[in-house]
Amino acid sequence: MRAPVESGQKRPTSNPSLLAWVDEMAKMCKPDRVYWCDGSPEEKQRLTEEAVAGGVLIPLDQKKLPGCYFHHSNPNDVARVEHLTFICTPTKEEAGPTNNWMAPQEAYHKLAAIYDGAMKGRTLYVVPYVMGPARSPFAKVGIELTDSVYVALNMGIMTRMGKVALDRLGPTSAEFNKGLHSVADCNPERRFICHFPQDNTIWSVGSGYGGNALLGKKCLALRIASYLAKNEGWLAEHMLILEAESPTGEKRYVAGAFPSACGKTNFAMMIPPKAFQGWKIRTVGDDIAWMRVGEDGRLWAVNPEYGYFGVAPGTNRKTNPNAMDTIKKDTLYTNVARTKDGDVWWEGMDGEVPAELIDWKGQPWKKGSAEKAAHPNSRFTAPVQNNPALSPSYDDPKGVPIDAIIFGGRRSTTVPLVLQSFDWKHGVYLGATMGSETTAAATGAVGVVRRDPMAMLPFCGYDMGSYLRHWLDMEKRIPKPPKVFLVNWFRKSQDGKFLWPGYGDNMRVLKWMLDRCQGAVGAQETALGFTPKAGDLDVRGLEHADIAGATRIDLGEWAGELESQTEWFQKIGKTLPRELEQQRQDLLAKVKAA
Ligand code: SAT
Ligand code: MN
Question: How far is the C-alpha of 540 from the C-alpha of 562, rounded, in Å?
Fold first, then answer.
């Protein structure tokens, strides 16, 4: 057996648990070199040069886009693969009916055979990282071992990476997430994303893409963290965190769960319309929130991430000007289209469609082509510091206090623009039954409504019924709970037009929700919850909206919606909290009586 060769580098830690594990994994994967990342700017430059030399990254126009590079993934590897994602708990029941399950021993065995020698000829990068502000009691250390320099560079943007993590871990602690990742031969037949919550371990093989490969993100910060959160009494959620500062300087915070590619990044970076002069919206996080009960009895949230892994198509100066500014420098672009002179392009970008492009696969592309130039799930990876609307609180170790929790899906019908729950339990019910039309963020059919509780269906690391029970139980733990709302920016008219303009105009809905938290604005009580009545939403300067259509509750449609939730509740099965089925029945009775 070939011993792994180190690149003459002195190991930057003496932590025995860490060293022993790295050795063991290296012995299995057999890389030519083991390289420990320190997270320094010099290292970033060196790894970038290495990636360019190896054809993994292609430099873009460094005048226009300084520090920006393009990467195209294998065309068979462009999104998360939910059917190949497994929760490997000792029993199938712990993973629950909505997750794929594999027995831990079987998973270790199966993947070990693929890892065996998979890194021959390659470098194994040891990527230490912290999720959360490094000094925060919320923070968690992970170590990702990867044979992809692209992954190492992405992790350098998405997390607090390098020395900071080894310092946080210290010389003796064994408390770190063990993430092993190899692109191996990038064969979808031999692609597995396996989570071992009891071992605080993730094994990912056969994919180099986003949520499959950047193990700090969905794998640790959601799947493993949700399991830890349940045991420790906190919440790890697929939520943006937004700061709203009023003209009088009062800051309030909301957390919002939306499925992948449903506008979380846009909402978190929103620029309010002119009528809301003096309001400032800032981003604390755009994808993940870890929330704990503070000493004051409120729910406090941190963003465990350090960068944005955002969807490129549809991002433009109108939909998200702050994102456009964020991605002007030091950004990695994956699977977008390019111009011949090294600029980037995607569907839905501002201005004229260029006559000729290089498409995401590297092929020549002409305007009018039936094929899309950028992949619909093409992405940018950019550091949070680039965001002109970054909240200074993003790095606050204690987090920010949450006033409102927002659940939202992509629904063409039925679900109104905004609905306030009657109470916490009803709010949990609204989150638990939330549906959304599927997007390109995961492989599979696009546009099909599926139930996606709290936008966590693909990210919950344990049994869904127990997860919903945990949400209900949190009520007892939070003396001053946030108010809970359901929103839908995507409702359409009979002829297929959006009823609500969305984007910056969502400020109008946000303002109503914030005012509701303070009892400062009216609402009408419907069978399903509180909605704004005419005059409650600030619509000064609003054009092209059918407010009545967007906010309407159609009791006939809702009777159907409530009936159809039975199937979903049956799928969750015997661990479904009784209270949630009771909520459904009570609402159905009210809707039928109305
Ligand atoms: O690929 S990721 O899972 O990181 C992005 C997403 O689907 O939300
Ligand atoms: Mn996401």
Answer: 34
> What is the CATH classification number for the domain harbouring 356?
2.170.8.10
User: What is the ipTM, given to two decimal places?
Assistant: 0.96
Starting at the earlier edge strand, list the strands of the sheet with 364-366.
Answer: 344-345, 337-338, 356-358, 364-366
Q: Is 382 helix (H, G, I), strand (E, B) or coil?
A: strand
Q: Please check the confidence at residue 2 and state whether its pLDDT lies above 80.
A: no
Q: If you take atom 1 of ligand 1, which residue's CA is the nearest one?
A: 211
Q: Are 170 and 92 members of one domain?
A: yes
Range of the domain at 359: 308-386
Half-sphere exposure of residue 23: CA atoms within 13 angstroms, side-chain side = 8
Residue 236, H or E segment: strand 235-237
Ligand 1 site, residue 80, Cβ cutoff 6 A: yes
Ligand located closest to 258 CA: 2
Q: What is the DSSP string of 113-128?
A: HHHTTTTTTSEEEEEE
Instruction: Compute how many other C-beta atoms are within 10 angstroms of the C-beta atom of residue 261.
Output: 23
Instruction: Report the C-alpha gap between 245 and 267 in whole angstroms.
Output: 15
| Residues 10 and 27 grouped into a single domain | yes
Pairing state between β 85-87 and 192-196: parallel
Distance 158 CA to ligand 1 centre (A): 12
Is-above-0.95 flag for pTM? yes
pLDDT of residue 448: 84
d(CA 500, CA 505): 8
User: How many domains in the chain?
Assistant: 3
The 3-class secondary structure across 168-205, one letter per residue, is HHCCCCCCCEEEEEECCCCCHHHCEEEEEHHHCEEEEE
Probe target for ligand 1 pocket from 260, 265, 379, with the most ligand atoms within 8 Å of CB: 260
Q: Average the pLDDT over 289-318 and give the result.
A: 97
Mean pLDDT of the chain: 96
User: Using alpha carbons only, what angle is made at residue 457 by residues 455 and 463, rounded to the nearest 5 degrees?
Assistant: 130
Question: What CATH number did the domain enclosing 439 receive?
Answer: 3.90.228.20
β-strand pairing of 483-487 with 400-408 = parallel
* 290, containing H or E segment: strand 289-293
